[in-house]
Amino acid sequence: MKKLLLVAALMLPALVARAETEAARIAAASEEVIATATDNAVTDQSINCSDGLGVTRVAEVDTAGGGEYGEQYRPTPLLQDKEVVLTFDDGPHPVHTREILDALAAECTKATFFYVGRMLKNFPEIAKQVQAEGHTVGTHTYSHRNLGATSLGSAEQQIESTFNIADEVLPDGVAPFFRFPYLSDPKRVRDYLAKRNIAVFGIDVDSWDWRVRSPEMVIRNVLTGLDRKGKGIILFHDIQARTAAAMPTLLAELKKRGYKVVHIVPKSKLEAVAAVEPASPTPRKRARQRKAANH
Ligand SMILES: [Zn+2]
Q1: For the segment 156-198, what is each residue's pLDDT rounded down to a tens digit?
Q2: Which of 125, 138, 187, 253 is the most exposed, fewest CB within 10 Å of its CB?
């Protein structure tokens, strides 16, 4: 509790409020997904791609030496005007991820999913389906930890254990793509990721889908943000029912307004380090992990 108070005192109040609300949301989502885990219905649909949103181009991202994308970082040439990248955090979710996959498939478009280790452990089949449908899968820590409020050793463990889980689960391996929970990205962890040849994806446009009440608000937030910025990496969460409900209309609206989807894929695969347990490592084990990461 003392530690929590100290963290709260040190951080911006808005970030703390967001972190606490989002942590509660993720805990609730984990309970919900366990309750719905037996629902494995797969819908079959015939898809006509000729008039869908589609994918305008595939951007191969070279992660050698890291790389940072999104408005909180230095500008990059990743996206041209009217180009967007669709990204979904916090899953996989056995119900809403499938709904979102159906919406993406109906428009023949592709997205990137940043997955949480403990969700990957609970729902590996959903993650496999995401990859099998041609989307990119990166990671988002093991337990959605705020890495701005943890030691570097603990951050490394959160990151590496989840990349290892994802790499084991996914037949084609995990992309060396990472997003910080709460977008809380201390320099020491960014430096570590760069050394590991893992790219960091921030955001340009926030759907605020974890906070608003309706699918209509999700759509409005994205379109307003895009109108203002003209392009960008869009943040959604595939554990949210309202996001899944918003997706068909939102994708159709993006096409109508002339936005073009860019699918990001890694140039090289992740170079996994030796097995890392999600539990707290001993100092000796941590030293071993650091040593392994240096190679
Ligand atoms: Zn998240």
Answers
A1: 999 999 999 999 999 999 999 999 999 999 999 999 999 999 9
A2: 187
